[in-house]
Amino acid sequence: QVQLVESGGGLVQPGGSLRLSCAASGSFFSINAMGWYRRTAGNPRQMVALIRDSGRIEYSDSVKGRFTISRDSRKDAVYLQMNSLKPEDTAAYYCYASLDVSGIWDDYWGQGTQVTVSS
């Protein structure tokens, strides 16, 4: 059974920084992409940052220049360094992975970690 385990959320003041971590565990052949999405109350989940196995990286316009995604292939992990945080970054952040399980690509999600930016 595949699991994505996240850590690193919390409360931070505007202008502060947080680092989210996520590690994939379980049985799978390969990773196509890993990334982070976020959701606020009443809104659909939106992509924040995505890193593909090719190395291509995508960011939402709202976080470009402030957030940095990285991946450790040896640990099947993905990280999100969030700097210059703003109150509008407050959301539940979800780790995402596209994994090859038994020859079928499928999407997997972490349980979510809350990030609150407030003074």
In brief, what are we looking at here?
By secondary structure, the protein is mainly β. Helices cover 0% and strands 59% of the residues. The chain is elongated and about 45 Å long.
Describe this structure in words.
The protein is mainly beta. The protein has no helices and eleven strands. 0% of the residues lie in helices and 59% in strands. The strands form two sheets. Strands 2, 4, 5, 6, 9, 10 and 11 form a seven-stranded mixed beta sheet that branches. It has a four-stranded antiparallel beta sheet with strand order 1-3-8-7, with no helix packed on it. The protein is elongated, with a radius of gyration of 14 Å.
Features:
seven-stranded mixed β-sheet, 119 residues, mainly beta
Write the SSE topology.
Blueprint: E1 3-7, E2 10-12, E3 18-25, E4 30-39, E5 46-52, E6 57-59, E7 67-72, E8 77-82, E9 91-101, E10 104-109, E11 113-117
Parallel strand pairs: 2-11
Antiparallel strand pairs: 1-3, 3-8, 4-5, 4-9, 5-6, 7-8, 9-10, 9-11
